[in-house]
Amino acid sequence: METYESLLAAVTVEDGTPVIDPATGQAFAYAPSATLDDLDRAIDAARAAQPAWAALSDDERRAALSAAADEIEASSEALAQLIAREQGKPLSGPGARFEAGAVVAWLRATIATELEPEVVVDDGQAKATVYYRPIGLVGAIGPWNWPAMIATWQFAPALRMGNAVVMKPSEYTPLSVLATAHLVNRHLPEGLFTVLAGDRELGEAIGKHPAFGKVTFTGSARTGQAIMRASADNLTRLTLELGGNDPGIVLPDVDPKAIAEGLFWGAFINTGQTCAALKRLYVHEDVHDDVVRELAAIASAMPMGPGTDEQNVLGPLTTEQQFGVVDRLVEDAKARGGRVVVGGEPDRAAPGWFYPATLVEGLDDEADLVREEQFGPALPILKYSDVEEAIERANRGDAGLGASVWSSDPERAREVAARIQAGSVWINSHGTIHPMAPFGGVKGSGYGLEFGVEGLKAMGVPQVIHG
Ligand code: NAD
Predict the structure, then answer these.
(1) Can you give the residue ranges of the Aldehyde dehydrogenase domain (predicted)?
(2) pLDDT single digits (tens) 119-132
């Protein structure tokens, strides 16, 4: 069992890339900086280790991953403290302990998922069966918002399917991913799974390297496009989990008090830095003022501060750059006549990248806060009078990751949900992902599915045996 101190010591170096504590804006540790030579060495080691791993039975691979899940569970408090320190999300609430728990939960769900050969033709004359074979080497590139959990979404199904993995975490949050791999690797053959902490050049090198049969990427749409271009010559298989601008539609039949907490966490989980968070809220005019009042009461009461303090449930933004994005969008909203109901005035003299939970009403859909992904704690609340109009407005823009419909009539809510262009639509909640339910975007939010049996298929190559 690791302590925070022992885990930190295992993944840091004396002289490397500073890792910033977002609650203070100061470096608290130094991460190794992998070079392109390190990438070549990791690829060689992965290629050497992969055939024997693929030759194991599925049950043997599951047993190794199960031991890895137990290992992480035993050290999950240490991992949670590292996540809270590095990424900023609070230990409490749906925060760092929740993320460390999700690492274990997703590993176990990936182990438990059955992927059987599928007989697709068997008519007495012909027989055809679909199998999923290992790809070989999978490259994985990740973001900074849920670093350890998203890394697990990438490496767990890839390893289960018999592949080797070389992973590059975000340069802002390398330590929690290195720590996760440090624990997992106690139960895997040497060289099979390597995490290389490095900057975007390392990511570019993975994107264009012909050794990778697949690259799985979670991050911004712009980077996803760059990876697609870089990998085109190799015809590399891709899963692209990109940004979102999730709409929520509140129908007139809701009880505003009953839905307010679900709406709040849908938007403000991880201080808004969540791909499938609620990012623009369309509320029917009959209930608009009540929904705003109930949400404002919750938003103004939620304690925000350093993630390592137990009493907080909202933390800082992870990077100074993201603070700047949120600040620009809220200032623009004010200039366009938006009314800030709560928040909107960060303490610029205070240390760290804290931006208060902010609600803005009275904007039109052309405001940047509505059109762009804020990826932070500032929610625009938009009034509508006709559900058809709300659906049309929800479907504007490039993004298509998640959405939600809020109603006391589930049948009506499902009718509206079916007409929203998004990979996942939740009814009376938002962003409540489940490890057995496939997750992925449409339109500009990318393509490919993670989780469950579809997630396993995405980490294999299909082969059809005739006969
Ligand atoms: P980003 O695209 O800036 O960076 C993601 C990763 O890509 C980092 O590791 C970075 O070093 C690397 N990278 C940068 N340029 C690269 C290049 N040219 N080639 C290869 N790799 C490169 O994204 P971010 O700011 O870390 O993450 C935030 C974004 O991620 C938001 O848009 C968010 O919605 C999205 N996101 C999506 C999901 C999802 O499941 N769909 C989940 C989490 C975050």
Answers:
(1) 17-459
(2) 999 999 999 999 99
Is 241 tagged catalytic? Answer: yes
CATH 3.40.605.10 fits 4-242+442-466, yes or no: yes
Ligand 1 centre and the CA of 222: distance in Å?
8
Do 375 and 355 form a contact (C-beta atoms < 8 A)? no
Neighbours of 101 (CB within 10 A): 16
Q: Is 455 in the pocket of ligand 1 (CB under 6 A)?
A: no
Other residues' Cβ atoms within 10 Å of the Cβ of residue 40: 13
pTM for the whole structure? 0.97
143 lines ligand 1 (CB under 6 A): yes
CA of 219 to the centre of ligand 1 (A): 2
Look at residues 9, 46, 79 and name the one whose alpha carbon lies nearest to residue 195. 46
Question: 215, 162, 143: which is closest to 50 by C-alpha?
Answer: 162
Question: 424: Cβ below 6 Å to ligand 1?
Answer: no
Nearest-CA residue for atom 21 of ligand 1:
203
Mutate to test the pocket of ligand 1, among 141, 245, 323 (most ligand atoms within 8 A of CB): 141
Options 3.40.309.10, 3.40.720.10, 3.40.190.10, 3.20.20.70; CATH of 246-427: 3.40.309.10
- pLDDT, tens digit (0-9, with 9 covering 90-100), for 102-160: 999 999 999 999 999 999 999 999 999 999 999 999 999 999 999 999 999 999 999 99
Say if ligand 1 is within 6 A of residue 208 CB.
no
Marked catalytic residue, from 71, 241, 361, 373: 241
The whole-angstrom separation of Cα 247 and Cα 263 is 11
SS (H, E, C) 134-174: ECCEEEEECCCCCHHHHHHHHHHHHHHCCCEEEEECCCCCH
